[in-house]
Amino acid sequence: MIEELFISRVRAKILQLFLTSPNALLHVREIVRRVCEEINAVRRELARMEKFGMVSSEWRANRRLYKFRKDYIFYSELLGLVTKTSGLGGNIIKNKARLGKIKYAYLSVRFLQGGSSGSEDVDLLVVGSIILPELQALVADEQAKREAEINYSYMDEAEFLFRVKRRDPFILRVLIQPKIMLIGQEENLLEGVIA
Predict the structure, then answer these.
(1) Cα separation of 10 and 37, whole Å?
(2) Do the beta carbons of residue 22 and residue 112 sit within 8 Å?
(3) At what angle do helices 75-85 and 87-94 cross, to 10 degrees?
(4) Which long-range contacts (CB under 8 A, 24 or more apart) does 154-159 make?
(5) Over the chain, what HEC string results?
(6) Chain segment 83-139, per-residue pLDDT in tens
(7) How far apart are the first and last CA of the chain?
(8) Residue 49, φ and ψ in degrees, nearest 5
(9) What does the pLDDT average to over 49-53?
(10) List of residues 6+ apart from 109 with CB closer than 8 A
(11) In degrees, to the nearest 5, what angle opens at C-alpha 5 toward C-alphas 4 and 9?
């Protein structure tokens, strides 16, 4: 089954496109334009991906539109891979040294899947000694690309541990949401909560 995932550069680009454009229904020509590959190569990969159950297609007004299937068996793993290599997640990992000493950083799955954020939701949590202007610049850049606000929270490790120990409702709600860890291990992050 692993062969169906990483067979070609074109498929990698299509996966990245679909997983960074949640809920998108895309026509072949739009996919070609956005991945900068030849139309025949894109059609071939879409046919294979549909055969493996990665994408589904539907006809609308004489146009075949494609969408990535969230029920695909490796959806969560692929979402994690793409999150760590592109967009805000990829930028945080690439610029880790410039951002200070980060102990933990994660993005919520709801945010990555294009869900709307409520005022109490946190799309990005960063814990550590953070250089705030650097983090703000990365978030602002992603907000401009998405044309949407990103709810993020940051705190130093002492504040984080204090709030976990006190079982602060905000921290508990933020920590139990489904997430993709960018930096640090989830079991370490949840250590004080579960204990």
Answers:
(1) 7
(2) yes
(3) 50
(4) 154/125, 154/126, 154/127, 154/130, 155/126, 155/127, 156/127, 156/128, 156/129, 156/130, 157/103, 157/127, 157/128, 157/129
(5) CHHHCCCCHHHHHHHHHHHHCCCCCEEHHHHHHHHCCCHHHHHHHHHHHHHCCCEEEEEECCEEEEEECCCCCCHHHHHHHHHHHCHHHHHHHHCCCCCEEEEEEEEEHHHHCCCCCCCCCCCEEEEEEECHHHHHHHHHHHHHHHCCCCCEEEECHHHHHHHHHCCCHHHHHHHHCCEEEEECCHHHHCHHHHC
(6) 998 889 999 999 999 999 999 999 999 888 887 777 678 899 999 999 999 999 999
(7) 38
(8) -65, -35
(9) 92
(10) 79, 177, 178, 179, 180
(11) 110
- The encoded tokens of residue 156 equal 């130093």
- Using the structure block, give the residue that is written with the tokens 């679909």: 18
Q: What is the token pair recorded at 26? A: 């895309």
